[in-house]
Write a structure and sequence with these properties.
With about 250 residues, the chain is α/β, with parallel strands linked by helices. The protein has a single domain, classed as Rossmann fold, CATH 3.40.50.300. Strands 3-4-2-5-1-6-7-8 form an 8-stranded mixed beta sheet, with helices on both faces. A hairpin with a 5-residue loop joins strand 3 and strand 4. Helix 1 packs across helix 9. About 50% of the residues are buried.
């Protein structure tokens, strides 16, 4: 089982990328589980045609431990196994707590043994890497961390903070940094700036995605791009990225 955490600044296209990569990996015959670790619980929405999933934190708050594994799992496009950690009402609790609870309950209720995924993708909000938000990096969860960024200054800044956290945590036996993914916004010196970031942390830019209007059009239909436009050049980019991520994990 390959366990991958994908981090990135909010709004950088992380969930869209993870969902399309998950579907691309499933196309290859792999069994894929995607765990949304964002309090907004919207990581898997496109895989589910806009149909939300009961979050693990909601289930826990309502029923304590009186719920089953199947209550928090749904199946999405291409058979991707979908889970959403969820989070508290804004201002009324720690957002990271949902991630901690979700990962603890998935393990406790035997999710990995029951579904036996080949690949687990943790989709993690990366503006802050502390507390529950660092949970997917910890020993026993993700093996590799990939960071999605554009060449925009705030995205680069967030990516650097995430990379620094991975570097600091690695001494504790946590996940290692697998590489950086460039999600283009067509800003000046974009590839150069992201390449410099990768060099600073002794890693590489393992893949690059074009800025494509078809991605937005698919989202408007509440679907992933691979489902709406499977023969497009952009779909091929997601398929290539999925292969590049797998290759980076296998090289480690």
């Amino acid at each position: 089982m390959i366990k991958i955490a994908v981090y990135g600044k909010g709004g950088i296209g992380k969930s869209t990328t993870v969902s399309n990569v998950a579907a691309a990996l499933a196309e290859q015959g792999l069994k894929v589980m995607q765990i949304g670790c964002d309090p907004k619980a919207d990581s898997t929405l496109q895989l589910r045609h806009g149909d939300p999933i009961p979050t693990v934190l909601e289930l826990y708050n309502q029923k304590k431990n009186e719920f089953q594994l199947e209550d928090m799992v749904r199946i999405g496009t291409n058979g991707v196994i979908c889970v959403e950690a969820g989070g508290p009402t804004p201002g009324l609790g720690c957002a990271g707590r949902g991630i901690i609870t979700a990962l603890e309950k998935l393990k406790e209720k035997g999710a990995y043994e029951t579904y036996q995924p080949d690949v687990v993708l943790y989709d993690v909000l990366g503006d802050v890497v502390c507390g529950g938000f660092s949970m997917p990096m910890r020993n026993g969860y993700a093996d590799q961390v990939f960071i999605i960024t554009s060449g925009e200054n705030m995205a680069i800044h967030a990516a650097a903070n995430i990379a620094m956290a991975v570097t600091n945590f690695k001494n504790r036996g946590y996940a290692s940094l697998g590489g950086i993914i460039l999600n283009r916004r067509e800003v000046k010196r974009e590839a150069e700036k992201v390449g410099e970031l990768a060099d600073d942390f002794h890693t590489s830019v393992i893949g690059s995605l074009s800025h494509c209007e078809l991605v937005t059009q698919a989202e408007e239909q509440k679907k992933i791009l691979l489902e709406c436009y499977p023969d497009s050049d952009m779909a091929q980019e997601y398929r290539l990225l999925a292969r590049q991520i797998l290759e980076a994990c296998q090289e480690e």
